[in-house]
Amino acid sequence: MSFLRDQSSQVSAASNPQGFKRQEAIWELFTSECVYFLDQLMVLKEVFLATLTNLHMRNCLTDVDSWRLFANLNELCLVSFGFLNKILHVIKDTLEIMEGGGPTLLELLSKAFQESVCHCLQKYCLNYSTALLYLDSLKPREDFGSYVKWCERNDQCRRLQLRDLLVAPLQRLTRYPLLLRNIAKRCQTEDETRGLQVVAEQVDTSICDLEGKVKWMDNYQKVKQLRDALVWQPVWERDKRAFFPENLKHLLKAVTLENLISHRSLLHEGKMGLTGNTKLNDVYLFLFDEFLLITKIKRNKKVCHSVVLLSNLELDHLLKEGCTFTVLDQPVSLDRLQLKNIDQLNASTSGLPHSFIIMHQNRYQQCIGAFILQAASESAKKAWMSKIEDAVTALLKLDSQQPRVKSSSLWLESSQI
């Protein structure tokens, strides 16, 4: 660093303003990477991860999975340290020989972001949401709480909490395109400018790809939890008019719907009111990419007997409290669904504000089910109707391009039959 300070006088804003600005932009990339590496990654590694590893060796907190909390932190540290060293060599070369430093910088950044930086950060970011959930599940434990508090009191943390440090790699990834474009604006050759813009676009593409993977992973985790919480009633329980002798019921039990949602995308979910004969029943709706599930919430008394369920509880909270969801009637395939709005006049007359109707039709266009659903507000009603309409449109468009094929796990009866 002393060498850099001594050599920095070679470039001045007066003698070479463009070169000076370029040098400042490179220096900003370098110094911000130093802060990221020393004040965030190394603190996570040397304070939190090292302490947890030491506790494991002493048979303490042995059930706490360090990978689920910190993922590939060691790899992140190695990649960032190597990146810093390479940038440092480029800065030295640029200060000593002003011409010829640009292509070396471009080559370095192209190779670093293509081969290591983006890939390593993507791996960490994919684990981030799971790490937070895991951290929240460990917080109630007194022994784990003592470990976190002891680490956070370390001077190296600078009053930052574990959660603040865990998010640092995500923030760093989103900052790289800004830093790269800042250098590109100050380059002295068009080739270098275009090259750095291409690298910035590659990082942007990596971020977009990561967002898609994170959404997929979040959906996968949520659907996986939901699959275990769904209760599919047999036909003789779902329809009281159906009669099956006990000695014949085993013939129907072979058919299972547990894997019906395994490969689906959960588009929207939330609590609604279902109009019954005498009262409004609380139900929970799950809108998937191919069908709609209307379920009744059942509380697990052993788990959540002290928890008061409020009208605005979300799925994560309900699953955490051990609640189950009993599927009413049957899945409503979106290509069999008709959506009817209840206007304000009819809603006022019937005493059903913020309501709409879902009709379930069979392949002969016969209505085999009708549900009057009531939202908490007019905006919530519009949101639900919009989500359902968009899902129906998307499915019909997909079916027109590539009809669904019957298979054991993915098939739903199509309207094209």
UniProtKB/TrEMBL annotation:
<dbReference type="InterPro" id="IPR040181">
    <property type="entry name" value="PKHG5/7"/>
</dbReference>
<dbReference type="InterPro" id="IPR000219">
    <property type="entry name" value="DH_dom"/>
</dbReference>
<dbReference type="InterPro" id="IPR055251">
    <property type="entry name" value="SOS1_NGEF_PH"/>
</dbReference>
<dbReference type="Pfam" id="PF22697">
    <property type="entry name" value="SOS1_NGEF_PH"/>
</dbReference>
<dbReference type="Pfam" id="PF00621">
    <property type="entry name" value="RhoGEF"/>
</dbReference>
<feature type="domain" description="PH">
    <location>
        <begin position="265"/>
        <end position="393"/>
    </location>
</feature>
<protein>
    <submittedName>
        <fullName>Pleckstrin homology domain containing, family G (with RhoGef domain) member 7</fullName>
    </submittedName>
</protein>
<dbReference type="GO" id="GO:0007266">
    <property type="term" value="P:Rho protein signal transduction"/>
</dbReference>
<dbReference type="InterPro" id="IPR011993">
    <property type="entry name" value="PH-like_dom_sf"/>
</dbReference>
<dbReference type="InterPro" id="IPR035899">
    <property type="entry name" value="DBL_dom_sf"/>
</dbReference>
<dbReference type="InterPro" id="IPR001849">
    <property type="entry name" value="PH_domain"/>
</dbReference>
<feature type="domain" description="DH">
    <location>
        <begin position="21"/>
        <end position="213"/>
    </location>
</feature>
<dbReference type="GO" id="GO:0005085">
    <property type="term" value="F:guanyl-nucleotide exchange factor activity"/>
</dbReference>
